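Subgroup meeting minutes
Present: P.N., E.W., G.H.
Scribe: E.W.

1. P.N. recapped why we're keeping a running log of single-chain structure predictions: easier to compare across weeks, and new members can see raw inputs and outputs side by side.
2. G.H. added today's entry (313 aa).
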Amino acid sequence: MPGTLGRRLLPLPLVLLGASALVFLLPRASGLDTTRTVLRSRIADSAPDPAAAERVSRELGLDGPLWQQYLLWLGSALRGDLGLSFSTRTAVVPQLVAALGVSTLLTASALLLAGLVGIPAGVTAARRPGGPVDRAVTTLSVLGAAVPEFILAPLLVLVFAVALPLLPAAGWGGPAAAVLPVVTLALFPAALAAQLTRAETADVLGTLHIAAARARGLSERRLLWVHAARRSLTSVTALSGMFFAGLLGGSVVVEVVFAVPGLGRLLYDAVLAQDLPVVQGGLLALVTIAVLTTVGAEVVQFALDPLARRAAR
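Output recorded in log:
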């Protein structure tokens, strides 16, 4: 286990270094003039004075070669300094920390809800493949995976905030305000978890290991929920890291529709305002979280699955 963990962690610095270079180069590759963007945000002038542009370029270290600009930016990022927002003239890091806290809570709640709904549904459906429960779970999971968030979110607002005024339509001020965003974000991973768990559990129920356990007289309930379900959870666990990072970065629609002050909303506003420090800092945070959560999910998978541990030796 420590050796496997070490092999997984070894390439992480190179992955993060490569990701930081891509994040740094992204605005340049899109043809955006950084100096003019800064001046436009400060003086709202589409044609800034060349002398002012030269002064700002020297001030921000943008007059040097590209590799020098990257090293300066990377050194500041490693010290926890991502600069000032072009729009608000405040430090980027506190904005990211506040937005990440909201998005992490939203994403973790959605994943928890998806697991509580999708995994038991998939295990129950696998008990009798082709039966009524299996057909119902399969139909609902396909429907859940097919409905996009930009359709589901307004639909939930119309039903539960307008027609039946039970929940607030927007905001992030308490548990009631979190219900609709969490449900919207949880639908897709819940559908995938149900499909994946159903397929994995059905495969495990047909193995010799389960047949031997059944011959020893174990009850069907114990076989299904203890032996088969535990083995089938390894695939869902392995994907949970990617689910978390994907939901964290892909929650833009949900956060914009429900006015949630999370990272997706922050990045959406920053892109519209061409606020490069916020965009770069947000993307760098997302990549770092995606890499770390993927490795963490693999560690949990190894802990749950003895076959995976033996295969890694």
